[in-house]
Design brief:
By secondary structure, this protein is mainly α. The protein contains three helices and two strands.
């Protein structure tokens, strides 16, 4: 990726997140950089007020009555653990 996540449009981030989600969780053909870009795009979307629901399919939508925040919020503990597990599995390959 050539640009910072903060420089990308919402639509670009959503497209990136959806494509990487499919590669990682459906096709299961990905690398550590893909995991990094996936997680980074979701964090940036959360900072912009989007609500993220990760299941077999990915749903991203604006939060009701959201207010943009200036500080990055940590993702929920289960998402961080799942991400770390995927990275560890990738590094073992």
């Amino acid at each position: 990726m050539g640009r910072n996540f903060s420089e990308m449009k919402d639509e670009e981030l959503i497209e990136m997140a959806e494509g990487l989600h499919d590669m990682i969780y459906q096709v299961e053909c990905y690398g550590v950089r893909d995991m990094h870009n996936y997680e980074g795009s979701l964090i940036e979307l959360e900072k912009r007020g989007y609500e993220i629901h990760e299941e077999k399919t990915l749903h991203i939508r604006p939060k009701e009555g959201h207010v943009k925040v200036s500080k990055m919020r940590p993702r929920n503990r289960d998402s961080v653990q799942a991400f770390n597990q995927k990275v560890a599995e990738t590094e073992r390959r």
